[in-house]
Structures are given as structure tokens and as C-alpha cells.
């Protein structure tokens, strides 16, 4: 039996936490022969502590053979001690009357503290996935507050956007999702994101040859970018199962390798495609079997994609300025 992977999850009693934990423990994240040990960051408030207790009782009742153990911890340093995978899902939701700047600041405080705790306590090869919004900037804050960890330990979740793009395209063309390759989503996890079919193939055929440009610009791109709001309107709550599934996909492919497939990850830029170095940005990546990844380089972007990428860079620069007080010198 392999040694368990030590996974820490924040926001474990929230919607996405609930949708994700059971699948981690069942083997969906790391494979059917890889045990896991779960550490759940508990918030010091009686309502959420009680909810978390209930989640842990249910996890226990599943009798998952791969769940080697679990614990709830309140102190972030203790929660991240030796962790190899960290899912940062917990975040401050936007409350009534809260401005965007207030939301950025409230979350900046959370992700600064978690970055500092990861810096002190996590495995030096930890793989951190930030789900809590604004996820690109939250990941950047955590990364900047963890100077002793490789910046490549940090990522933000744009996989839900890639999955949405693939399924919209599959629906339009009638092809199975599994036949779609090289779908990319560039940028910020915000309505400005850039779903890009330029390099995609469907059963080996070039995706742009299968649909018209008008559909791509006026239907496909806005549908993917605004899907989160459409889910809230339909369900009365934000995406949870699909977000949890994307988190499973993201970590699965980062941990096990993407077998040559492109996977969209929000990762610190290496300067590719004019994105400032260090900015956490959605790029198509390929992950090797050893868990190291590279941004796909040398793609000929259309002028429209370049302009949209520039808009995302400006948006993220604005977010970075708003949280500058949370970044160490
Ligand atoms: P929920 O409101 O259901 O859960 C939020 C969790 O965050 C709860 O566990 C809550 O704890 C915790 N939390 C709230 N405030 C704080 C705080 N100040 N410090 C630490 N933890 C806190 O939200 P969801 O699970 O639906 O969503 C979680 C995040 O994921 C949100 O930011 C959402 O916007 C984001 N998201 C990201 C997506 C992506 O593609 N990147 C897609 C969908 C959602 P408690 O139980 O104590 O209240």
C-alpha cells in the first residue's frame, strides 16, 4: 500500500467543500490505489464547526477504503503541516452592500495568512490550488507571502472554465467531449476570460473549421464566461458540484500528469504571451508524469485573442494594486 497523500482543504463545510471531499476520499483525485489523509481547516465559529463535524461523520460513514484518516484543525500552520496538496476553497463571499474593493481586501487577509502558514509548514513540493474567488489574485497573494516555496507550487482554478468550454463545444458539434483536445482558456477567472478554440481539434479536425466565427464570438465565448451567473440564476446557488469536479480534474492532472493533453491552469506567468512575469494567469499547460508542468509556448495567437489577453492583464493589475498592502516588500 502506498503512503497516504496529505491533503488540506479549507472551506470544507461549504458547498464546494461538500461536493469535493467525498470524491477525494473515493479515489477520484489521486487514483484507485492511492490513499489520502485529510486535514480540514475548521473555522472558529460554532455553526461551521458543527457543520464540519457532520461532514466528517458522513465521510466516516462512507467507509472509504482509501481514506487513511482525517482531522479538523483550527490553526492554519498546523493545518498545512507537511501537506502535499492544499485546496484553498474557503473564501469570504460578497455580502450585501460590499464593494469589490472590500471583497478583495477581506480575501487578501485570508490568503496572506494561508500563504504565510504554507510557507512555514507545507511540504516543499506542495501543490496549492486556489478555488476561492477572486482566485487568480488570491493565489498570487498566497504565493507572494510564501517566499520560501517555489512560485510554481501555486495555482488558481480555471479548469471549470475549460470544462465548460469543452462541453459547450461538444454540444454544438455533436461530438463527444472526450474527442476535444487543445481547448484553452486564457486569463482571469472573471467574465473577461478568453475561451479559445483556435488550436482545438475535434476527432482530429480543426475546431474553427466546424463552427462559424459569429457563433464563437457572440454565443460560445459569452456563454462560457457568464456560465457562473447562469447557474446562480437557475439554481439559486453558485456552482458547487461542477466546481468540485474541476478541482478534482485540476489536481488529478497536476499530480498524475496530463499525458500530453493541454490543461488550463492559472499559474504564475513566465513572461509568455506578454503576461507579466509572476502574474497568476490562465494558460494551457502540459503536466509531465513527475508533476512538473510547462506553459504551452510558441502559439500564434489571433489579434483578437492578444487584445483580450491584454484586457485580462490590465484587470489583474488593477486587482493587484487593490491588495498591494498585503504583499511583503
Ligand atoms: P460557501 O459559501 O458554501 O462556502 C464558503 C466557505 O468559505 C465556508 O466553509 C466558509 O466557512 C468559508 N469562509 C467564509 N468566510 C471565511 C473567512 N473569512 N475565512 C475563512 N473561510 C471563510 O461557498 P462555496 O463553497 O460555494 O464557494 C467557495 C469559493 O469558491 C467562493 O469564493 C466561490 O466564489 C469560489 N468559486 C470558484 C470557482 C472557480 O472556478 N474558481 C467556481 C465556483 C466558486 P463557514 O462554513 O465557517 O462559513
From TrEMBL:
CDD domains, A to Z: MDH_chloroplast-like (cd01338)
Molecular function terms, GO-annotated: L-malate dehydrogenase (NAD+) activity
Domain of life (superkingdom): Bacteria
Name recorded for this polypeptide: Malate dehydrogenase
Biological processes annotated in GO: malate metabolic process; tricarboxylic acid cycle
Catalysed reactions, as listed in the record: (S)-malate + NAD(+) = oxaloacetate + NADH + H(+)
Keyword NAD: yes
EC number, UniProt record: 1.1.1.37
Keyword tags: NAD, Oxidoreductase, Tricarboxylic acid cycle
Gene (UniProt): mdh
